[in-house]
Amino acid sequence: MKLSKKILTLLFALVLTVALAGCGGEEKPKAEEGNKDAAESEKLKVAFVYVGPVGDGGYSYAHDQGRQYLVNEMPDIETTIVESVPEGADSERVITELAEKGNKIIFATSFGYMDPVIKVAQKYPDVTFLHCSGYNTAENVGTYFGRMYQARYLTGIVAGKTTQSNIIGYVAAFPIPEVIRGINAFTLGVRSVNPDAKVKVVWTNTWYDPAAEKEAGKSLLEAGADVIAQHQDTPGPQQAAEEKGKFGIGYNSDMSAMAPKAVLTSAVWNWGPYYVNTVKAVKEGTWKSEEYWGPISDGVVGLAPFGPMVPEDVKQLVETKKQELIDGKFDVFTGPIKDQTGQERVAAGQTMTDAEMLSLDWFVEGVDGTIPK
């Protein structure tokens, strides 16, 4: 009996020990899960609004490449994207929803999002909004863009050296200063090496419409163009050029994969470093509203690798002029510059101000086309 009592006592103690150990074992995973949830909730939420699909091969694709760079550089943040958001009222709804969901930084990547951003920003003063290519700011709204006209000028040199017909086609989106500025810079580059060349412009009034943009490219080829440039978000114009055995200048991202036999080079965006710098500044509490317009020396704009059809002497010519831009020895919009009517708009030795470039509403000499009202 005494032995049985001792055995029972030992068994009871053993069961109690195991039970306590079991309770302790249950608590540990809960604590770890709680820490994980806390870590997740502490992640800074950053959102991106795109006007086209990420797979457009152009503008939205370039922005998303920048976002991916940001995620790789700052894995402690959480990003959200919303694709194919129409400009206007629908974008206001999307941006509002992103703010409501706890995103503390929202990048609105298209010109037509500007007014909706300003409206939403007034309701969410603790959220930082960045609007790409616009001009309206607020205490919690900044604008950002790059001096793409510098890269445009350089691609114009390539086009001017390549054309045999002296007709270069340009498929253009909307008649806003950004697009007009790009056409003018490209034309100045073309005529710096080929004064006889003309740049023929066709408007599509679209940012992303593969079929319409390709058709516009075809119409320019039928009009005698043997090089096709573009301010569009799809590689359609480049594909049209390749199908006709002609050449092209891509835009937004390196478009050579979509038309390898046609693309001489592309004027490209490199948003990644800007996104990293901006998010870091917000996290550190040093961000202030500004109108960022980065030059080629910042790396935010540049050129894609040259195609194998571009001669070495042309590559060297472009590299030399690029270095002059970086060093500040050359500026694209330095006079003398005449408009289509032959009237001098920028005197010799004078350089257009940023305000003048940002409001451009006329074409330089050498452009064949009109600007719709």
TrEMBL record:
Pfam families associated with the record: Bmp
Signal peptide: 1-21
Every ABC transporter substrate-binding protein PnrA-like domain range: 44-326
A GO CC term assigned to this protein in UniProt: plasma membrane
Keywords: Signal
Protein name: BMP family ABC transporter substrate-binding protein
Organism: Desulforamulus ferrireducens
Organism lineage: Bacteria, Bacillati, Bacillota, Clostridia, Eubacteriales
